[in-house]
Amino acid sequence: MQITRILFRNFGTKLLALGIACVTWYLLSGERRERISERSYRIPLSFVNVPAKTMIVSPLPDAVDVRLRGPFTPLRQIEPAKLEAVVDLAGTPPGEKLFRLESGDVNVPPSVEVISIAPADLRIVLDAVAEKSLPIVADLTGVPGAGAHVEDVLVEPRQAKVFGPEKVVSRMPNVSTEPVSVEGRTSPFSATTTLASQAPGVRVREGQVVTVRVRIVPSQSAPPAPTPTRLRRK
Q1: Does residue 17 form part of some domain?
Q2: What is the phi/psi pair of residue 157, to 5°?
Q3: Per-residue pLDDT reduced to its tens digit, 29-61
Q4: Which portions of the chain are predicted below pLDDT 50?
Q5: Of the candidates 41, 89, 82, 78, which has an alpha carbon nearest to the alpha carbon of residue 63?
Q6: Is residue 71 domain-shared with residue 147, that is, in the same domain?
């Protein structure tokens, strides 16, 4: 009788506690009862902690393909726009290094597994960033009108400040403008243009917009003096 009284003492409270425990177990074990699914995504590739005064100079994909595996509900609730594969470059010295993407580099929920990444191996080359002032050369195209020639060309500004991979910038003797046509012209003129696209990774910091002043004179004038010009015939 004493055991019976103990068992049924506060019976309602005990029954409620048992119900809560059963519901909790049911909810927590739900993922294990769900069917396992797999999905593929194409996600962006990001690079973090790039060392100061260095830059990536090797060609790399913008995105990678991943295949995920997990319970149906968590997998369905993933927002593809928030997925990304992250490469941490902290402490990486200049030069070439092979990085392998692991499952931990993809931001997925704990219940979801990354079962494949393609490409998984990335060849990354870091180079020091250099800055340099270079002379601007006008890129002239076409042929002046009959009986005329280009005698002189002036550009303003005369120099542009560029920055980019040290190995590339150190080999650049100058920067050129976008083409400026002298086709059929017989008198001096000015044109406003921009600098042409530079080598991969090189950017113009100062001097992007250029004024080109071209002096065209009759051919019986004195022979043209050397000028910082690249003349191309059509």
Answers
A1: no
A2: -70, 165
A3: 554 556 889 999 999 999 999 999 999 999 999
A4: 31, 221, 234
A5: 41
A6: no
